[in-house]
Write a sequence for this structure.
């Protein structure tokens, strides 16, 4: 019976630790930062990094 109680308490503590570490922040500043990060991902600044192949060469 004691072993079962230890296992249950250990499981509850483990689940609590996982839930607390993986919770999402819910502050207004975090929401704004996440929105700005998504905007930057959709429309990155600067020229494209792809290089064009020279037109005179055939491969």
């Amino acid at each position: 019976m004691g072993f079962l109680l230890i296992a249950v308490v250990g499981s509850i503590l483990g689940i609590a630790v996982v839930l607390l570490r993986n919770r999402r922040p819910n502050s207004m500043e975090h929401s704004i930062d996440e929105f700005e990060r998504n905007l930057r991902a959709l429309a990155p600044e600067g020229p494209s990094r792809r290089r064009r192949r020279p037109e005179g060469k055939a491969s």
Notes: The chain has two helices and no strands. The chain has a mean pLDDT of 83. The CA atoms of residues 5 and 32 lie 44 Å apart. Helices lie at 2-21, 28-42.
